Amino acid sequence: MRARPRSWGLALVTGLLLLTGCVRQPARPALSPDDTIRAAQQELTDRCLTRQGLTPPRPGQRGVNTAEQERVAGALFGRPPAELSLTLASGIPVRAHTDGCLAAAQRTLYGDEKRWFEVSTVVNNLRPEAAYRDRSLASVRARHRTEITEWRRLRAHALHESATLLRDHGPR
User: Fold this and answer.
1) Within the chain, what is the greatest distance between any pair of CA atoms?
2) Which of 80, 79, 83, 89 is CA-nearest to residue 147?
3) How many angstroms separate the Cα of 155 from the Cα of each of 32, 64, 77, 106, 139?
4) Among 16, 59, 83, 103, which has the minimal tally of Cβ within 10 Å of its Cβ?
C-alpha cells in the first residue's frame, strides 16, 4: 500500500519540475551546415511568397491550379530575361534571375548574389569540367583555387546569417 503514495508523490514532483522548467526536454539534434542554410533559405523564400499573397509550394502538395503554379514559380525563380549568366568549360550557358524570392534569399544569406552565382556554378561543376577536359579533379580544383576559396568564404557568411536568422526568428 505504501508504493501507491510514493508513486503519486513522484509523479507530482516530476510534473511540477516539468511545469517550472527544471527538467529539460532533450535538445533537438543540430542541423548540418547544409541543412541550416537550406532551412533559412526556405524560411526567407516562404516569407517572400507569403508577402505576395502566394502559398509556398510543398512536396506532394495537391489542388493548386496551373495558373497559380506559374505565379508561384515566377515569384520564386524570377521572370525572364535572366540577368546573370556564366558559360561552363563545356560551353553550356548557365543563367539565373535576380528578381525572384530565391534570389532575394541568396542576397540576404550570401551577401553578394552575383559572386555567389559565379563561384557556386564553377564549384558545383568541377567534376563535369574535369571529365570534359579529360583532366584530374585535383588539377581542375587547383585551376579554380580562387573560386573555391571565395565559395568557402561566401558559404561561411551564409551559414552565419542562416544560424542567426533561425535562432532569432525561427521558422514560422
Assistant:
1) 84
2) 89
3) 13, 34, 21, 11, 23
4) 59
Q: Rounded to an integer, what distance in angstroms lies between the CA atom of residue 101 and that of residue 55?
A: 13
Q: Are residues 137 and 126 in contact, defined by beta-carbon separation less than 8 angstroms?
A: yes
- φ and ψ at 58, to 5 degrees? -135, 145
Q: What angle do CA 147, 153, 158 make, to 5 degrees?
A: 120
Between CA 98 and CA 40 the distance in angstroms is 18
What would the grid cell of residue 122 be?
A: 564553377
3-state secondary structure of 112: coil
Looking at the chain, list the stretches that DSSP marks H as alpha helix, in order from N- to C-terminal side.
3-20, 33-51, 66-77, 101-110, 113-123, 126-133, 137-143, 145-168
Alpha carbons within 13 angstroms on the beta-carbon side of residue 23 total 7
171 cis-preceded (ω within 30 degrees of 0)? no
Question: Tens of pLDDT along 83-105?
Answer: 999 999 889 999 999 999 999 99
Count Cβ atoms within 10 A of the Cβ of residue 37 and give its class: 0-12 exposed, 13-18 middle, 19 or more buried: buried
Count of beta carbons in the 10 Å neighbourhood of residue 140: 20
Q: What is the pTM of this model?
A: 0.75
